[in-house]
Amino acid sequence: MKHQDVIIIGGGLIGACCADVLTGKGLETTLIERRFPASGSSRACDGLILLWDKNPGPEMALGQASVGLWENLVPQLDGDVEFRQSGTVLVAEDEGSLERSRQIVADIAAQGITATLLERRELQEIEPALAVDLAGGAIFPQDYQIDPRRATFSILRKAQRQGLQLLNGEEVIELRRHPGRSGGWEAATQKHVYAADYIVCAAGVWTTKLLHMLAIELPIRPRKGQILVIKAPRDLIRHPLLEGGYGDAVHAGTDDLQVALVAEMTPAGTMLVGSSRQFAGFDTDVSRDVLQALARRATRFIPELARAQWIRSYAGLRPWSPDHLPLIGPVAGFEGLYVATGHEGAGICLAPVTGELIGEWIAEEISPSLADAISPGRFRDYHPEP
Prior knowledge:
The protein has ten helices and 18 strands. By secondary structure, it is of the alpha/beta class. The protein has two domains: 4-64 and 148-220 and 323-378, FAD/NAD(P)-binding domain (3-Layer(bba) Sandwich), CATH 3.50.50; 88-144 and 221-320, 2-Layer Sandwich (D-Amino Acid Oxidase, Chain A, domain 2). The strands form three sheets. Strands 1, 2, 8, 9, 10, 11, 17 and 18 form an eight-stranded mixed beta sheet that branches. It has an eight-stranded mixed beta sheet with strand order 5-6-4-13-14-15-12-16, with helices on both faces. Strand 10 (185-189) and strand 11 form a beta hairpin. The longest helix is centred in the first third of the chain and has 16 residues, at 58-73. The radius of gyration is 21 Å and the shape is elongated.
């Protein structure tokens, strides 16, 4: 293969969006995926695109920009990626949770996002299947759903039409400087050696293993999550549901298991039930104890699920960062090397804006306005001196 402009490592939704932007800007780009597209976290997750769980500041700015990019991108894709503005409902179990919901509504409204507090009666009117003793909640009508797997494949097909070279079943086993050029990189797999001016590591939690080849340390940890797939009546719930403690679970950095209700219907008529969060290394085995905890939490809020049939379950690894912001951009001291990881549970929402940011750095050679907030270099000791 001839020398390319860019090599992307990782065929999930983040890598696909980077490939789409870079090829759309005319760069010769190769994407290397060790298994097959969406074989990692992009297939082991829900499909919610949320704004209300984003902190004010850089995280919210990234989220709002990315939702707009999703709205522009989806009409350009072939096939149905199940993108729809479903809204989400935040469910408050008790008065304390309702008070937190009230604060979330106020904070979100201050960002120009539609949000409405729901009293007990109003919650029951829009979601009759919920337990009758819940205190209330909130509704966020501007949130979206999407099928991340379908979206990944469709975006990659778009990028291929723009010239992307997609390589499946090849694992990068070595990263090194190109020996015959003053700049540039080589990525060696078990099959070939590929060369490019730029490398983008977009391999989720496995990005850290790639960078270890260069003695670079990033504070990214795999945060395991499990999902339970249930056979349920199509009209059992009308919106995706999340409990009031979901935001606390997302932002918690503790090592203990975090469980908070997330429930969404799919067009296929199944219900996805989550969510769990725990630091368990790179283990992706499904834990029955965790599934039972998810089921108990779900039936607390949706009693009819006690009679529902479990269909299957799966687990994935979210790339967690200490300050709950992704690491996107150039690696200081390693010219031409970029990372796009650390999105934790917001990778589906933030994938398009991640691609745009990488495109600005590489294709346009400009530093985005949020560069400092998301720079890998914000963690001072993230790698030894090169």
